[in-house]
Amino acid sequence: MIDFILNNKYKNIKRYKEISQVLAKYGFSIMADKLHNKSFIKTHFLKKSNDISNKYNRAQRIRMALEELGPTFIKLGQILSTRYDILPEDIVDELSRLQDNVNEYPVEKAKKIFKKELNKDIDEVFSNFNETPIAAASIGQVYKGRLKDGRNVVIKIQRPNIRKIIFKDLNILFSIAKLVDEHFNKKNPVKYVDVVEEFSYLLKKELDYTYEAQNCENFREKFKDDDRIFIPKVYWEYTTKKILVTEMIHGVKLSDFKKLEDMAIDKSKIAHLGAQIFMEQIFIHGFFHGDPHPGNIFVINNNKIGFVDFGIVGYLDKETLSFIVTMLKAGSKKDATKIVEALEKMNAIPVETDEMNLKRELNVLLNYYYNVPFDKLNFSDALNDLLRISYRHNIKIPSQLVLLIKSVVTIEGVSKKLNPDFSLIQLSDELLIELKKQKFNFNRILSEGAEMSLDTLKDLKDLPRLLKQAFHRIEKNKLKITLKIEGFNELKREINIMTNKVSLSLMVSALVVGSSIVIQSKTGPTLLGMNAMGFIGFSFAGILGMILTISILMDILRYRK
Asked: What's the CA gap between 456 and 465, in Å, rounded?
């Protein structure tokens, strides 16, 4: 591992220097030392930590360090800002305060990137291009414009060299995650390398605007007949990995409360509408917006909203969706056993978890939230409490569920700002009742039955062929059965070690007894006044005995750990 880290370090030596300095500055010298284990590098690159450690607590210092390290680390922190299942509560709470403060880059650079990507000047494509960006994010900047045919559009242009910067930081993040897992996270089934792997996947997708454009098209297709929602059209002829041109939404951002009041918008109605559409994305389409913050939702009128920025989306397969529905039903019935069974079905509970204690904690949680009135109930708090229990019991939550929880927490927070009396749980209950009706709809049952029958017929059709292959292999003695016993190789190794130690003990005993007899014989050559062969035998027995004793002591220390 050290070789892996050193190889990466020498490729990105300048960035390693910056990260090590920041880590040392905020009191994480141990991590900085691990990152730079050469004394020369430590001497020349690492600053001594100042009194920041005394002024701020651990969580604050982590947040400040991430902000100073830049866009990649800030984005990672934002993803971790709901991960009560893998981080202590104080750190998660502090990470929710992370601010993505980025400076605008010059419009001339944006025009150069546009020209390089499309081989056209901005003036050739747009009759009007507003050079002042309407938004500046860590990956790109957004401008307003008008195409030659008069259509108003939004143009997103990626920051110069951002791909190179992010890939370099991801490389370093993997090194840091490996160090954390090796030195501070040995017992937790959730490994930070896996978290960084998932984060890397999401971030690389965000760097490709054609992926975002495709997500936008998918949403537009799914909601094409829904008058409650507007999804902008993508202009593919002007879209590349670094450029995205979409239809402009004529509405007001959900974050602009003053303009909403000027438009006489019914906030309660919008809160219900936005949350309803989002929950339908989950339960009906299994495909949801992964970042539904107020800046990505536009209000068009009292009955219609629009979504933008589809860089992060979540997909739910039938098994995960079934798991969510089971969890909600079990929660409404205060059935902790069902929740544990659902988690086991998802392979989320490690073997060492005390299930009785887990059920006890879940029962306390369910009884507490069951007795809270609907108007006072906060779905986000319930989900976060569930994640806290997951952290205490080392439960591994699937990544898509984590993204879903983050999105649900965001949408409930937005809805409660619009309407303090809003209840997401009540809305979920209404939707589950509707889904139950749909599930028992005659046409739906007929359709699913026909599909199941076709699958069964196909399986039956393949059965004779598969049986024939199996019998042929048995006849030719070519059928192999592999039996894998968990931990068998480890047990085999331990037995071999134990057997070798017993054999060594017998050898030492035999040498001691044999050497004693030879010395007593007082014949043959002498050494230091004793029979030479007896003396050599005793010496060899002593060396082997010391080796055996040291080995046994090391085993004792290892098992104590």
From this structure: 15
Q: Which of 318, 274, 285 is nearest to 218 (CA)?
A: 285
Own/partner contacts of 373-380, CB < 8 Å, gap of 24 or more, are: 374/423, 374/425, 374/426, 375/421, 375/423, 377/423, 377/425, 378/412, 378/416, 379/408, 379/412, 379/423, 379/424, 379/425, 379/428, 380/408, 380/409, 380/412, 380/413, 380/424
Residue 257, burial from CB neighbour count under 10 angstroms (0-12, 13-18, 19+): middle
- Token pair belonging to 316: 């739910």
Q: Are 447 and 455 in contact (CB under 8 A)?
A: no
Q: Round to whole Å and give the CA distance between 307 and 229.
A: 8
Q: CB atoms < 10 A from the CB of 435, how many?
A: 14
pTM: 0.67
Please write the tens of the pLDDT for every residue from 1-46. Answer: 444 444 555 557 778 788 888 888 888 765 655 555 544 344 444 4
Contact of 355 with 389, CB cutoff 8 Å: no
Report CA Rg, the chain. Answer: 32
Query: Do the Cβ atoms of 166 and 180 come closer than 8 Å?
Result: no
Crossing angle, helix 379-392 and helix 355-370, to 10 degrees?
170
Residues that are catalytic = 291
More confident of the two residues 555 and 315: 315
DSSP state of 136: E
Buried b (16+ CB within 10 A) or exposed e, 289-326: bbbbebebbbbbeeebbbbbbbbbbbebeeebeebbbb
Each residue's pLDDT tens digit, 94-152: 888 876 667 888 999 999 999 999 999 999 999 999 999 998 888 889 999 999 999 99
Burial (CB < 10 A; 0-12, 13-18, 19+), residue 151, is middle
> What secondary structure letter does DSSP report for 356?
H
Going by pLDDT thresholds of 50, 70 and 90, the confidence category of residue 87 is confident
Q: What is the mean pLDDT of the chain?
A: 79
